[in-house]
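Lines hold sequence, tokenised fold; shown next:
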Amino acid sequence: MYRKLFLVFQKHHALYVNSVSDAGFLAARTQRIQLIPQRNRALQEGYTRFYASSASTLPKPPPLPALGTPEETALARAWIDKFRRETIPKGAVELSFSRSSGPGGQNVNKVNTKATIRCPLNSAWIPMWAREGLKKDPHYVANTHSLLLTSTVHRSQSQNVNDCLSKLHTLILTTASRSIKNEATPEQKKRVEGLIKADNARMRAEKAYRSEVKRARGGGRGDW
């Protein structure tokens, strides 16, 4: 009798375990099926991605609102030389993606291959003396006080992101370099000195000629 009861209990326990396992499998499968449309929806709709900030790796410019002295110019030139060798990391900007428009491959108009970066103009790694010039650039957005650049030239997100970062690097480097006055070479200085001497000699010759003309006119009146 006890053996029969044990066999009945074992049978019902096995059925219960199997039912629980099947229920767990079905729940996991259902959850996975529900997540797939959500993931596809995220790929189809624009979204923003934030990275851990790594802007601290960029060289910090000297706090100069303007370049008025040779010392300030030298500091700015040293920063430009360092910044030229750097690349802007993803953590220094805000990234967003959306679907590209226009002709392309199968995925161009279906997934978010268009990359957009936004960079606040008051970022610590952007030189102060270049910010007024950056405000005049078409990429400047006044209501957010930031620089906005996009790229759709490639079919992948990563390549378009790198293209945006390269554009931003070139923009900041070019604008910051405009305030740097290039020093004249020794040959240029010598040529300028020669032109100044020649101009002074010409002015002295003209002055002497006018004096001679006046003197000659004065002497002529006395003969009458």
Notes: The longest helix spans residues 2-44. The two ends are 166 Å apart (CA to CA).
